[in-house]
């Protein structure tokens, strides 16, 4: 069992413009209305660097900034764990199309933006951080895998850790074989359990064997939960938004699950 506190949350997704607005929707006090995701221009990057960023990087930087601001935290002092199941789908699609041509002249910018740790790199530039960072790709299990890694760092180092996860769709034809749905980004500043304050207490326990998993209560997000690895965070966010104690069970690997016990601070 690993324990921590959620000090703050950043969120950007379809119809979810930030954590304060999303909190009311996820708590069931406001209706959910899907809307197109338009990430802001990444703060902390030069104009040249901004032009090179894709949707996934902009999502990650936006939610990271929101979570860090909500925790009144110096971004440069935070280790980071990032989860991205597929990388930037638009860039990957464009690279594959280029490789299918006789010339195969791959854009250096596309190649640069195709790697899974590109968002962590841009966040390090934007935040000025020289702290350790990790980037995890675990398919549909990317959220529980990266969350468990972040919680383990909090426990081992007894310090705050920034956890970011995002998912962005591919273009066709890859979208047909690997649908992701709408873009979604989530960030949390996780703090040691002995720290005061925060918005929720969380404990995680990996368990083997089949069990009923927790799906979103927000009807409009259930389809996204099925296909976007970052959306696996939604049931946890709903539990936090409702301010009640509860257990969230996430599927994790073949025949396994990650059980999260959540309670308000």
Can you summarize this structure?
The protein has 265 residues and is an alpha+beta fold.
Description:
The protein has 265 residues and is α+β, with helices and mostly antiparallel strands. The chain has one domain (8-196): Peroxisomal Thiolase, Chain A, domain 1 (3-Layer(aba) Sandwich). It is 35% helix and 22% strand. The chain has ten helices and eight strands. The chain has helices at residues 19-26, 47-52, 55-70, 89-99, 108-114, 118-127, 142-157, 174-177, 222-227, 234-242, and strands at 2-12, 80-84, 133-136, 161-167, 184-191, 200-208, 246-251, 256-264. An eight-stranded mixed sheet has the order 3-2-4-5-1-6-8-7. β7 and β8 form a beta hairpin. α3 (55-70) packs across α6 (118-127) and α4 (89-99) packs across α5 (108-114). The radius of gyration is 18 Å and the shape is globular. It starts with a strand and ends with a strand. The model has no long low-confidence stretch (mean pLDDT 93).
